[in-house]
Design a protein that fits this description.
The chain is mainly α. The protein has a single domain, classed as dinb family like domain (Four Helix Bundle (Hemerythrin (Met), subunit A)), CATH 1.20.120.450. It is 60% helix and 3% strand. Strands 1-2 form a two-stranded antiparallel sheet. The two termini are 29 Å apart.
Length: 173
């Protein structure tokens, strides 16, 4: 399997697992404050989707993220998460709605799929400036592995835990 096809598959599988984890979340569960340092599911969902939007558009394509335009006004979130860390303060004050976020996510996912259609293996080695997030100069592959795959799975764990605190099944069955 070619590298691009492999990453496309991994990103797709991470997305399916992420969306499967959130598929049965209610509006109340989406915004519920679990207490302590844990943040609402809405913050995890927004962080993952906005990170992919910014990663694709700002870092990989050198354009404005979709959230910066007309789509952002309909994204279902009052304030976009900060780029990099820490974002826990934002996560407790930000408000989001599930239908708006899902619609925004669908547009981001479609744009990501289109990106893979135009990508060549050599593009994975292209340098990307991540110094604003504290990672220096990395590669496009680093963005995909850490932002679109690992980050998604980590937040799936957080969301599953929060669902478990509510007596619900975490990961999709």
């Amino acid at each position: 399997m070619e590298n691009v096809a492999f990453f496309r598959q991994l990103v797709s599988e991470a997305r399916e697992f992420f969306e499967g984890t959130i598929a049965d979340v209610t509006a109340d569960e989406f915004t519920w404050e679990p207490g302590g340092r844990a943040v609402p599911i809405a913050a995890h969902y927004a962080h993952v989707v906005v990170a992919q939007d910014r990663g694709l558009h700002r870092l990989l394509l050198g354009t404005s993220p979709l959230a910066a335009g007309e789509i952002g006004a309909k994204a279902g979130i009052q304030e976009m998460p900060p780029f990099g860390q820490p974002w826990d303060e934002w996560a407790h004050r930000s408000k989001a709605n599930l239908p708006g976020m899902r619609a925004y996510a669908a547009v981001v996912y479609a744009a990501s799929d289109q990106y893979f259609g135009d990508l060549a293996d050599a593009d994975l080695r292209r340098p990307v400036d991540l110094s604003q997030a504290g990672y220096g100069t990395q590669t496009a592959q680093f963005v995909l592995v850490n932002g679109w795959i690992a980050n998604v799975h980590m937040h799936c764990g957080e969301i599953s835990c929060i669902k478990g605190l509510r007596g619900r099944q975490g990961y999709p069955a």
